[in-house]
């Protein structure tokens, strides 16, 4: 048995902090959190203060390290993207294919099968489109959007069985309640997004098994006092999870603070980056479906825009969202960490990660007191 013993940092187990304790890892899995005076033999890893937490989980990553998944939907691209986000504490992510051709979707599914088996941080696949609403297209191409067909349902179910974790963003207008129910019962994670639907239409799909909404507030019908829209339905529905982009550009912090206070039930808000290829890259532009996206510096972090000013994903990384949450959203450090670890794990039903309990993966991140990442580990090995 290969055992490592991590000492010297506060340990956050996904629920609470442990002071003056050690994290014991055996064969890549968490064995225990133990008192410092009662430790087994093993390699001691001494950390210089700060916090040791489960690694971050990002359910929406379009690119990183100079690579966009849409440009080359391959296992190699997924590995490069995962590696580009690891310095920012992300140890599990879903490479995300935005609206594209059927051929691109098929390629991404095949790539994800291989990338998940490699066990280097790719935890599944997120297909954000093509079943979105043109009325809320955002930076996606409306001409590629279409309703869900029976063949799509069958393909998603097969993909979920092969990959393990498949998240699909769909507009309520493009998928029927019966289709949502069939997909959910087969284990596909459905998120409603890029949708101009009524709150009633959203609630019907949540009740049928849709688990969440994609980037709350962005590209969706807004909260009105007589027409609550998708925003209102998501906040009010007790079992619905809500991804949020906390970068200072996508949503005003007042709106996020309001949503955090108002969210009802067991579903929670959790962080996603919606990151594009420029995260982990020094470039200032890239192309998206033949259109130039440029980086505009300023604010909490830089933003990414098309020529008409439309936001095109984000330039934020996961540790920055945690800092944003603590600084601007009135979050405790514990809750900000949960929003990057425990909550996305629960949303995606990744029971073996996102917290530090006996038997979970030893995917770890060490943070300084100033919330800078110093190191990450995948299954207990330095990454």
Would you give an account of this structure?
It is a single chain. With about 375 residues, the protein is α/β, with parallel strands linked by helices. The chain is about 25% helix and about 25% strand. It has 10 helices and 24 strands. The protein has helices spanning about 75-85, 100-120, 150-165, 175-185, 200-210, 230-235, 255-260, 320-330, 335-340, 340-350, and strands at about 5, 10, 15-20, 20-25, 30-35, 45, 50-55, 55-60, 65, 65-70, 90-100, 125-130, 165-170, 190, 210-215, 240-245, 270, 285-290, 290-295, 305, 310-315, 365, 375-380, 380. It has an 8-stranded parallel β-sheet, with helices on both faces. A 6-stranded mixed β-sheet has the order 3-2-7-22-23-24, with no helix packed on it. Helix 4 links the parallel strand 13 (about 165-170) and strand 14 (about 190). Helix 1 crosses helix 2 (about 100-120) and helix 5 crosses helix 6 (about 230-235).
């Amino acid at each position: 048995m290969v055992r490592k013993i991590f000492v010297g940092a506060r340990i956050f187990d996904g629920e609470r902090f442990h002071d003056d304790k050690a994290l014991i890892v055996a064969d890549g899995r968490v064995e225990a959190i133990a008192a410092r005076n009662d430790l087994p033999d093993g390699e001691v890893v001494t950390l210089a203060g700060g916090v040791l937490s489960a690694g971050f989980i990002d359910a929406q990553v379009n690119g990183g390290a100079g690579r966009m998944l849409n440009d080359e939907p391959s296992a190699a691209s997924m590995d490069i993207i995962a590696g580009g986000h690891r310095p920012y504490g992300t140890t599990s992510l879903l490479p995300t294919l935005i609206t594209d051709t059927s051929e691109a979707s098929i390629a991404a599914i095949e790539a994800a099968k291989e990338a998940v088996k490699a066990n280097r941080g790719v935890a599944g696949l997120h297909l954000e489109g093509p079943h979105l609403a043109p009325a809320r297209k955002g930076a996606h191409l409306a001409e590629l959007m279409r309703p869900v067909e029976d063949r799509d349902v069958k393909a998603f179910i097969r993909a979920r069985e092969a990959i393990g974790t498949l998240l699909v963003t769909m507009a309520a207008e493009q998928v029927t309640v019966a289709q949502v129910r069939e997909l959910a019962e087969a284990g596909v994670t459905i998120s409603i997004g890029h949708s101009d639907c009524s709150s009633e239409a959203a609630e019907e799909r949540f009740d049928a098994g849709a688990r969440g909404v994609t980037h709350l507030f962005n590209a969706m019908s807004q909260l009105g006092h007589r027409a609550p829209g998708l925003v209102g339905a998501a906040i009010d529905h007790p079992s619905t999870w809500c991804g949020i982009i906390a970068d200072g550009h996508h949503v005003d912090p007042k709106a996020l603070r309001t949503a955090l206070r108002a969210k009802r039930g067991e579903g929670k808000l959790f962080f996603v980056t919606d990151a594009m290829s420029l995260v982990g890259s020094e470039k200032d532009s890239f192309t998206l479906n033949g259109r130039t996206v440029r980086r505009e510096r300023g604010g909490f972090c830089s933003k990414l825009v098309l020529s008409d000013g439309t936001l095109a994903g984000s330039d934020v990384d996961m540790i920055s969202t945690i800092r944003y949450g603590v600084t601007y959203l009135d979050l405790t450090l514990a809750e900000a960490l949960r929003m990057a670890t425990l909550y996305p794990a629960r949303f995606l039903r990744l029971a073996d990660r996102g917290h530090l309990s006996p038997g979970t993966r030893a995917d770890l991140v060490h943070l300084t007191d100033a919330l800078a990442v110093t190191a990450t580990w995948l299954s207990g090995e330095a990454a």
